[in-house]
Amino acid sequence: MARIKFLGTAGARYVVARQLRASGGVYVEDAGTRLLLDPGPGTLVYMAREKLRPEKLHGLIVTHVHLDHSADLNILVDAMTEGGLKRRGKVFLPREGLYGENAILLPYLRPYTEEIQILVPQQEYRLGDLVFRTSVRHHHPAETYGIILELSGKRVGFVVDTLYFPGLLESYRGCQILILNVVRYKPHPSPQVQHLCVANVKEILEKLRPEKAVLTHFGMTMIRANPKQVAQKLSRETGVPVTAAWDGMELEI
Ligand SMILES: [Zn+2]
Known about the structure:
- This is MBL fold metallo-hydrolase.
- By secondary structure, this protein is of the alpha/beta class.
- Helices cover about 25% and strands about 25% of the residues.
- Strand 10, helix 5 and strand 11 form a beta-alpha-beta unit.
- The chain binds zinc ion.
């Protein structure tokens, strides 16, 4: 059995800045392999609260460099490697996170890790016995990839930050469980704000028909709309059971 724990469910500037929801990313454990996906601000603190030990992590995945997905990356690398005493753990991140002016992983920490792997589109990766794939490149201001994990024989797709586009669907087809970052209740008027809204999620669920869907990474318009009610309405409309994640929610697979 695998488990997924939502250490935080905040998305976008305001909800993260005010900590209206926590922003700790997602902890995944499967057959002794432990990883943290998108270590946003406070991940280290939320892990301590949940008695999850960072030095027991095998890897960290950062889907893109935005702060709500990566702020605690460096401290977690330090904690995972016990300050470099033990060279261990893998870090997966897009090229942009390693090179260039938006690089987020501090150079002095890099040799502490066992390996750094660059995420590219539609590629298979391994962390211990755990296998995952990247999606096509998402439409988002930063270089962003969704993650499809194989957990207990199920395919679990993390549809992270993106504008909706039809090419997105192919990457997540066949996922039994979809976890979607739904920042917006309605589409944003500005084309620069590239996030999913509820209507996009409805379309994705109708087209892909997973066994189950989880909404997370809520911005202010979603918090105001009440994510639980949004999830119930989506369940009724699509026939797919939809849950709105809460901070600390655990999913067994
Ligand atoms: Zn983002």
